[in-house]
User: What shape does this take?
Amino acid sequence: MEVQKEAQRIMTLSVWKMYNSRLQRGGLRLHRSLQLSLVMRSAREVYLSAKLEEDEEGRLGPQPCLGEEGAGQPPLQPAAAASPGPPAPEERAAPADRGNAPGAVDPEPMETQDSSGDAPPAAPAPGAGRRPARGVSLPPPAKASRKRRSSSLDKPGAAEAGLVPTKKARLEAEEEEGERQPQGQDGPFPSLAKVLQTRFSGMLRGGPPKGPEPTPGCRPGDGVLSILVRAVVAF
Amino acid sequence: ADIISTVEFNHTGELLATGDKGGRVVIFQREQESKNQPHRRGEYNVYSTFQSHEPEFDYLKSLEIEEKINKIRWLPQQNAAYFLLSTNDKTVKLWKVSERDKRPEGYNLKDEDGRLRDPSMITMLRVPVLRPMDLMVEATPRRVFANAHTYHINSISVNSDYETYMSADDLRINLWNFEITNQSFNIVDIKPANMEELTEVITAAEFHPHHCNTFVYSSSKGTIRLCDMRASALCDRHSKFFEEPEDPSNRSFFSEIISSISDVKFSHSGRYIMTRDYLTVKVWDLNMENRPIETYQVHDYLRSKLCSLYENDCIFDKFECVWNGSDSVIMTGSYNNFFRMFDRNTKRDVTLEASRENSKPRAILKPRKVCVGGKRRKDEISVDSLDFSKKILHTAWHPSENIIAVAATNNLYIFQDKVN
Assistant: This one.
C-alpha cells in the first residue's frame, strides 16, 4: 500500500516534471525526457505489481467485480515496457472497475470518466500498425476516431499492407508538423497539452506533490500515462 | 547568467578559459613568475573576455536556443595566437585570441582619429610606422560550424591530428574539419527508426589523446563504446563495449537514471578512461571491457536520498571529472561546494570545500567530512545540512602542475599546491 502510494506519487511528480520541461528555455531535452520516462516506467511497474498483489488478495474475498477485473488484467505486461499491452488491458479493465467502491485506491474511475473519449483512439493506437509517432502518439481524439474507425486499421501491419495510403500521407504531414513544433501550446501535442491542462490543471497550479499523501481526485490514469511516456520520448 | 558552465586549461596551462550561462567566455592568463617575488607563484588574471554565443531563435521549430556555453576546448598553440572551440546547444565556433601591442600610425588619407583627411590638404606622402601601444587582446570568430545538430550538443573534442574535431549531441556525432564549415561527416548515429524505441542517448564523447582514429562515447545507460574510424565510415558498430553488470541489490526506481554517465575522459597516457555517473567515478582499462578497474564512491550517502534528489532535480546534475597531469589523481565535484580527489596509488581520498570563508589567499584548505548518521563529530557536516544548490559540476586540472580550477556556481576558485 505504501509502496503503491509512493509509486503513484513518483508518477505524478514525473508527469509534472515532463510538463514543466516543455516550458523550459532551450526546448525539450531529449535526455531529460528519457530519464523522466524511465522513472515513470519503473514507478508504474511497481505500482501495477503492487496493485496486482492487492487485487489478488482481494480476490480471495467474495468480490465478483474484483475477480472479473483481476482476470481481465493480464499478468502485467509492464515488463515489456515498450509493448502496447498495458493501456489496452487497463482500458478493458476500467469498465469492470466501475463496480468497485470508489473509495478503493483506484486510478481507474477517474480515468474512465475522462478517457471514454480518449479510449477508442488510445486502445487501437498502441498496435504495431501505429505510426512511428513523432508527434502523433496521442492523436487528437476527433481526428483519430475519424482515421481509425476502419477495422483494418486496427490490425497490425495495416499500414504496411498499403491499405491506407492517403491517410499515411496526411499523417506524415502531421508528423512533420510535429517535428517542426516540438514545443508550445499549439505544438505537436495539442491534445496532449489539452489533456495535461484539463486533467492536471489543479495539480499543476498547486505545484508538485509534496509528501506521501495521495492527491485525491487527480490521479493520472495509467493508460494516459503510458501514452504520455511515449509521447514525450518520441518527439 | 553568470553561472560558470565550463572550465578548461589550455595545453600548456598558461591560459584558463571559462564559459558561462550568458554565452560569455573569460580567459585568464598566468602571470609570469618574477624573480623578485619567488614566493608568489604565478597567479591567474583576466586576459580576455568576449561574448561567444548569443541567444537565438529557431523559427522552424519554434525553439529558443540557449546561449549557455556547454564546452570549451583549446587547440594546441601553433603560432602567436591562441585558438579555442566553444559550443552552445547547436553551434560550435572557432575563436582566435591574439594580442596586439603595436599599431600603425601616420596614414596618409586619414588622421589618427580615423577621420578622413581632405585630399586637397595633403602635400606629401609618408609611410605609416608601427608604434607601441597598450596591450590589447582581441578575440575574433574565425569559423562558425552551424546547423549540423538536431539535438543538443553535449561534447566537443579536438582530434590529435589537429585538423579535425568532433561534436556530439544526444543521438549523433559529427566529424568536422576546421577549415570546412558547411559540411561535416556523421560518424555515429544511434537514432532509432521509430523514436518510441529510444532507450539510450549519447552523453559524452572524446577522441583518444594519441590515436587519431579512436574515440569513445558514453551513454545514458552507463555504457561506453570505443570506436575506430578506420573500420568503417559510420561507426555505429563499436570496436569495444564497456559495461559493468548492475548490482541487483542496489535496484530502485532511480537505478537506471543514476547509472547514466555524465562525463568520460581519457587519461593523458591514453591507456585508461574515466567515467562519472551520479554517485561514482570509475576508471576503466581499455583492454578490459567487462568491468572497471577502479570504482570510487563520490557521495554514497546520497544513495538513500535519491527520491528527494529526484524531487529537487538534483539527480539530473551532470558532474564532470578530471585527471591530473600524471594520471595519478582524479578529481570530481559534489554538493555543498565540496569537491573530491582520489589518489589512485595510495587509495587515499580527500574532500575539500570551495567557499569564500575557507579561501583567504594562501590559506590551506581543510579536509571536510560528511557524517553519515550516528554521532556527528565536530567539524563534520551531516547529510541533511548539505546545500544542494551549491554544486560543483566543472573542474579543471593544470596539465603539468598541481593547480586546479573549481567552478562553484558563479565563482571560480583556483587552488595551488602549498609553496614552502
